[in-house]
Amino acid sequence: MNLPENLKYTKDHEWVRVEGDVAYVGITDFAQSELGDIVYVDIDTVDKDINQNDVFGTVEAVKTVSDLFSPLSGTVQEFNAKLEDNPELVNSDPYGEGWIIKMSIGDTSQVADLLTAEGYREAIGQ
């Protein structure tokens, strides 16, 4: 399973890539493999302030719909428009082209509370 060391993770299977005061958020390789083929990504929080652990959208797979939980507090700036026509990017490239949202970070101290790759591996029993 692919878990890049430069990312942070949540127990809810989201990953975070911090670039200055902006965070890119997606779901982990583990999460996409458990969900199966992603057929739709629904994000209705663009331009909205959200708190850490709030639901910011959903991913729909062939067999289930799963909520997406914000790893940080902040404002959702952008939804990855590529996912509108190619939601399968979440499966094929979860840490690259398959990112889901870009958000401003409201409280940078929250980043320190996220899991490292090693901590996430332990959380999922890998």
From TrEMBL:
According to the entry, every stretch annotated as the Lipoyl-binding domain falls at 22-104
Q: What InterPro entries is this protein classified in?
A: 2-oxoA_DH_lipoyl-BS (IPR003016), Biotin_lipoyl (IPR000089), GCV_H (IPR002930), GCV_H/Fam206 (IPR033753), GCV_H_sub (IPR017453), Single_hybrid_motif (IPR011053)
Q: Name one GO cellular component term.
A: cytosol
Residues in the signal sequence = none
Q: Looking at the keywords, is Nucleotidyltransferase present?
A: no
Q: How is the cofactor bound?
A: Binds 1 lipoyl cofactor covalently.
Task: List, alphabetically, the CDD domains matched.
Answer: GCS_H
Protein purpose: The glycine cleavage system catalyzes the degradation of glycine. The H protein shuttles the methylamine group of glycine from the P protein to the T protein.
**PANTHER family attached to this UniProt entry:** GLYCINE CLEAVAGE SYSTEM H PROTEIN, GLYCINE CLEAVAGE SYSTEM H PROTEIN-RELATED
What NCBIfam families is this protein classified in?
gcvH, PRK01202.1
**What family does the Swiss-Prot or TrEMBL record give for this protein?**
Belongs to the GcvH family.
Instruction: Provide the protein name.
Output: Glycine cleavage system H protein
* Gene this chain is encoded by: gcvH
